[in-house]
Amino acid sequence: MTGAKRKKKNVLWSKMHTPHWEDFKQWCRKRLPILEWAPHYNLKENLLPDTVSGIMLAVQQVTQGTFALTSLISANAVERLVPLSVQNLTTQSNTSVLGLSDFEMQRIGVAAAVSFLGGVIQVAMFVLQLGSATFLLTEPVISAMTTGAATHVVTSQVKYLLGMKIPYISGPLTFFYIYVYVFENIRSVRLEALLLSLLSIMVLVLVKELNEQFKRKIKVVLPVDLVLIIASSFACYCTSMEKTYGLEVVGHIPKGIPPPRAPPMHVLSAVITEAFGVALVGYVASLALAQGSAKKFKYSVDDNQELLAHGLSNVIPSFFFCIPSAAAMGRTAVLYSTRAKTQVACLISCIFVLLVIYAIGPLLYWLPMCVLASIIVVGLKGMLIQFRDLKKYWNVDKIDWGIWVSTYVFTICFAANVGLLFGVVCTIAIVIARFPRAKTLSIKNIKEMEFKVKTEVDGETLKQVKIVSINNPLVFLNVKKFHTDLINIIQKENASNLLLDDISKCEQNTLLSPLSNGNCSEEASQPCQNEKCSLILDCSGLTFFDYSGVSMLVEVYMDCKNQSVDVSLAHCTASLIKAMKYHGNLDSEKPIFFESVSAAISNIHSNKNLSKLSDHSEV
């Protein structure tokens, strides 16, 4: 007995705890996707293409670094808090971290603080489930913001492309001030840097176009970025371009990774603006690429999961003095072109980047900055050619075209996060302006409904029933339009419906006239006296509502009731039924809520038969 009881207890214990364990495993698989796909990884089919893609991706990682837009935002914080002008005023002393000076560590610390706080903001957005708000980020807004941000990045590279010394300029209209300075000091352009930049851009564009054109015929594309880096660094080393022509080079690159250490917390309050910019711009740009990939390869994207992934990708590396990161269009294109199969390609890329950090990094000392700037500018081609979207928006919707242009202008005049905020606010304002004028109602197809219920209802009943479908949410923005649409629909059917012949006698009907005070003439005080008429509202398209919407539905019901018009509501949600019952004094003697339009028609037919039977009884 004791063993049987113990066994029964274990079974009960197992039943009680198995669901919780399954829920936990499911949560882990959802938040750590590698647990889902790694056990099913096919080494034979996927390892080779993933390895090739990982190597090519590592090459681009080394040449371009992380996401240019978030890097630019971080650089603004660094230049604002620890400007280069302070370097000559401070005593230079090396720290124990990779042989870097105190000044260099201060600048790196500010960038790490931006990464840390930006990641914290993204994780907080995940906890608050704000990923669901991404529906506000429309395609024109994202396209304009990323194009404007790419324009800023190109502008930041102008000084290297031209070999000029440009002082740090910040604040609104920085974009224009930089070009004004360039034209005012055009004679200080270093011709050697300009020619090398033009040559590098021409080579990069030409080879990349050839790679794109013949990508189906060649198995491995030519890594022109890597070839250009090796060739230019070797040429600069052999000819001493740094001293002979005054070309600026990358300079000393520390070897290895510093030991983990918390970023400087005392500067967090000073980098809040840049942190929000990194969090929003990085997430939006990454999400746009993720959604594009999902559409291309037929899978879904969890917007909140993306927030968690990017947040942790910024918080954890910040303890190793890493700058903010995000997905980039250029690297995504490399994965497409090299036919990467899984995320193992990214893992292999990380291994090769570590190899560069520990062994090859110092060899990039002689890389000319104008060549590096050319690689960065060409890498932004995918974002810059989004100007072509203007034609599409103009032909489809000129309002979207206006949103694109205005968002772009705000982005280049101020910053990427300001442009993004303006685009979202502008989109919401336009929706608010459009929403009340949107069509809220439509007449149901009576022939289709007649076919569905022809075995239950006679044609005479259908002629007395008006079926109206609610197509939009019913909120304060469109309740007046809803009332107007309902009036227009009923008035439009006046000539063909017996109901409307009787109702037309009442010139001040509260349902049909928005200016009515509810008084009718004696002749029309009892409309539909011979035949009782009915209105069915199909609420299947009423996805949500507010207090104003419920008030209007109750008002319509009461107006119709006063005019002897039966109102039935079909496909109502439980919350709508509860709200209407709570708000108004609805008729409790007969039902007004039905599961379907057919059920409502059947109820009307039954009531009609009962009414006829009652009339015969009275006779």
Q: Mind explaining what this structure looks like?
A:
Strand 3 (533-538), helix 25 (547-562) and strand 4 form a beta-alpha-beta unit. The termini are far apart. The protein contains 27 helices and 5 strands. It has a 5-stranded mixed sheet with strand order 1-2-3-4-5. With 619 residues, the protein is mainly alpha-helical. The longest helix is centred in the N-terminal third of the chain and has 30 residues, at 2-31. The protein has helices at residues 2-31, 34-37, 43-64, 68-81, 102-127, 139-156, 158-162, 174-184, 191-213, 224-239, 241-244, 272-297, 303-318, 329-337, 344-360, 369-379, 381-384, 389-396, 398-413, 416-434, 446-453, 459-463, 479-492, 498-503, 547-562, 574-583, 597-618, and strands at residues 441-443, 465-470, 533-538, 565-570, 593-594. Helix content is 61%, strand content 4%. The chain crosses the membrane at residues 108-128, 134-154, 166-183, 189-207, 267-289, 342-360, 366-387, 408-433. Residues 455-604 form the STAS domain. It is a multi-pass membrane protein. It holds the Pfam family Sulfate_transp.
